[in-house]
Amino acid sequence: QVQLQESGPGLVKPSQTRSLTCTGSVGSITTNYHYWSWIRQPPGTGLEWMGAIAYSGSTYYSPPLKSRTSISRDTSKNQFTLQLSSVTPEDTAVYYCAGGVGLLAGFGSWGQGTQVTVSS
Predict the structure, then answer these.
(1) CA dihedral for 40, 41, 45, 46, sign (positive or negative)
(2) Confidence bin at 112 (pLDDT 50/70/90)
(3) Residue 116, number of CB atoms within 10 A of its CB
(4) Are strands 79-84 and 109-110 parallel, antiparallel or unpaired?
(5) pLDDT tens-digit series, residues 75-84
(6) Is 68 exposed, middle or buried (0-12, 13-18, 19+ CB in 10 A)?
């Protein structure tokens, strides 16, 4: 299974765009039928799926976040990136990248998670 590692700044100011990158190792993000997701967990709440990019490059987004979310990839670096625009303090959360076979069919690989805090 692909091993995943998130990276990116932990503190961002309101209204800015936040970017996080997930780097895969021991496997490729272009492996057939695999989907690579961003998931977050705000303080005191459950996990929220934000969106995904498929092995083919197709993207899928959670409807409530679709207007502010963009997921892209760099296959040469085995990376996929989340951009979240117009952030507010409500976007403060631990952000995870995860992947597996099928869209929302289970995640066999998870990153360790990275804390993102939105504060002025």
Answers:
(1) positive
(2) very high
(3) 21
(4) unpaired
(5) 999 999 999 9
(6) middle
